[in-house]
Design a protein that fits this description.
- The chain contains 19 helices and 11 strands.
- It has about 525 residues and is an alpha+beta fold.
- Helix 1 packs across helix 8.
């Protein structure tokens, strides 16, 4: 199905972010030492599970550090222990964990999944302080916008949420940044920049992760999350994306609350209260009339429709950010992370999903080479063989045993073997898919993810690569050609005057060269004359 002759836009990796200098080296060094102590206490710096794999001269250091591990360092897998460490260290470390969770290609799927379950819960700051923050950010009294303003219902390291009511009776959620959080983030980023420089210089294995660029990516993400106006814009965009599929057969089952723009400032975000019951509430699945199987289907399909059809998707779709109500409707909240896919990446996603569904490994391989993800010096056939090794073990297994996110994770794990350079949005996509299928499987452990995804992927393939799409693209090319010809007629290129000048060699140069050649020839003859006689 579809035509593979058209070339996808080359996936040229974006330029690395500009590295910022460490502003306070001494203070950052002391903070970094404190972080290292916490990592050692949780056995997350050099986990005991990897000690046997280390060089012999490093093992004694690892065993020495294990002596200082506390009770927290004995429970759980390495990813779980590292997640608890990040929760203890605060907002910058939590964001680091969230970004590391997107790199299943480097750390493995299980480790990435454990980090993806980071909790970010802290005690709330006082209500009167929250009111002052609202008034300072919006430049108006709280009473001028809200008839009632309640205590916090959720508190994280960056912000906390309060229920409030507008004059027209609508219930809203007011998200407020913690006082002084910008300073804490700046201090944490300074320490992370120092750690990245040390890692790049003394830990060669870390260089594949590009630690300095990695820190700048985290810094950029935190800058976006520290401006509530930008999150409001993302929420508004995703709501428009979700509304486009309302009323269609496959879409329209996920919504987003409306933004109350009068209540938006740099440190404050106001949105309508999400309808339904939070999916973290055990009572959510017991709602009368709720279809669990349809709800699981709608979680998967809503995400794929966002990514494939619109190229913009909510990139943090876990239970904490989802509400549900009968019969099988969803409401998403918290739009701090939005993933984006260009036309080439969207086709790449659709093609590899369809290729695994149809077991067409040659097709998936050719898509990778067309997209530029695999350098041309590698073999298409060899890459198809590697893909078969990933896909065939899951063929014939029950749907509940086949993880779509794990399949993509295994696909990304072969990146080093074939020198693949994946763009960050594809890793973010895979991380979100792991979260989405986790939600679906917790709703229904036997949920068939592939059956839920197939109609969305098939519809995209038919629309974008089928005969109608080819006719549409041909017509568009003709229109573009006619427009270019019309512009050429209306504004022909300016005439250019070409001046041809006859080059000549000055007489003194000719005489000089002739004398030099004659002298050289005479010298050669004199040197050979005795032999000639």
């Amino acid at each position: 199905m579809g035509d593979l002759t058209r070339r996808i836009d080359a996936a040229t990796p974006p330029p690395a972010p500009i590295t910022q200098a460490v502003r306070h080296p001494v203070e950052s060094s002391l903070r970094l030492l404190g972080w290292l102590a916490v990592l050692v206490r949780h056995d997350a710096l050099v986990p005991r599970e990897i000690t046997p794999l280390l060089p012999s001269w490093v093992r004694w250091i690892a065993h020495f550090l294990h002596l200082f591990a506390g009770r927290q360092g004995r429970d759980g897998r390495p990813g779980q222990r590292l997640g608890r460490t990040f929760e203890h260290l605060g907002p910058v470390a939590i964001k680091l964990g969230q970004v590391l969770a997107t790199r299943a290609d480097i750390f493995g799927v299980e480790f990435a999944r454990d980090l993806g379950r980071l909790k970010d819960n802290l005690p709330p700051f006082p209500l009167d302080q929250a009111r002052r923050e609202v008034e300072r950010s919006l430049g108006r009294p709280v009473e001028s916008l809200f008839t009632d303003f309640g205590p916090a219902v959720a508190a994280a390291s960056l912000a906390q949420a309060h229920p409030a009511w507008l004059a027209d009776g609508r219930k809203v959620a007011v998200k407020i940044l913690r006082p002084g959080v910008e300073r804490r983030v700046a201090q944490g980023l300074d320490a992370m920049r120092l750690a990245a420089r040390v890692a790049h210089r003394f830990v060669p294995l870390s260089r594949r992760l590009q630690p300095e660029a990695f820190v700048e990516i985290i810094a950029r993400a935190l800058q976006l999350e520290l401006d509530m106006r930008l999150e409001a814009a993302a929420a508004s965009e995703i709501k428009e994306v979700l509304a486009k599929d309302r009323g269609t057969e496959l879409g329209g089952h996920m919504d987003a609350p409306s933004v109350v723009w009068d209540g938006v400032g740099k440190r404050v975000l106001t949105m309508e209260w999400a309808t339904g019951v939070a999916m973290t509430d055990p009572a959510a699945v017991d709602q009368p009339g709720l279809d669990i199987n349809a709800l699981a289907d709608n979680v998967v399909r809503s995400f794929l429709i966002q990514a494939l059809d619109h190229g913009a998707f909510h990139a943090d779709l876990h239970e904490g950010n989802l509400f549900c109500h009968a019969p099988a409707e969803l409401t998403a909240i918290d739009f701090g992370i939005v993933g984006r896919l260009g036309p080439g990446e969207r086709r790449y996603l659709a093609e590899i999903l369809w290729g695994f569904i149809s077991r067409d490994y040659d097709r998936i391989s050719r898509v990778h080479f067309e997209a530029g993800y695999v350098p041309p010096e590698h073999s298409v056939e060899a890459f198809a063989q590697a893909l078969r090794a990933v896909g065939e073990p899951v063929i014939g297994k029950a749907a509940s045993q086949v993880s779509m996110g794990r399949l993509l994770g295994q696909l990304f794990e072969i990146t080093d073997l074939f020198d693949m350079r994946l763009r960050p949005e594809l890793i973010l996509l895979q991380k979100t898919m792991v979260s989405v299928e986790g939600v679906a499987r917790r709703l229904n452990p036997d949920h068939d993810l592939w059956a839920a995804a197939q109609p969305v992927v098939e519809r995209w393939i038919r629309r974008e690569l089928g005969p109608q799409a080819q006719v549409r693209d041909a017509v568009q090319e003709i229109r573009d050609t006619l427009k270019a010809a019309s512009r050429l007629v209306q504004a022909p290129p300016a005439r250019q005057t070409i001046v041809v000048r006859e080059a000549y060699t000055p007489a003194w140069v000719i005489v000089g060269v002739t004398l030099a050649v004659a002298t050289s020839a005479a010298a050669l003859v004199l040197s050979l004359w005795p032999g000639i006689l």
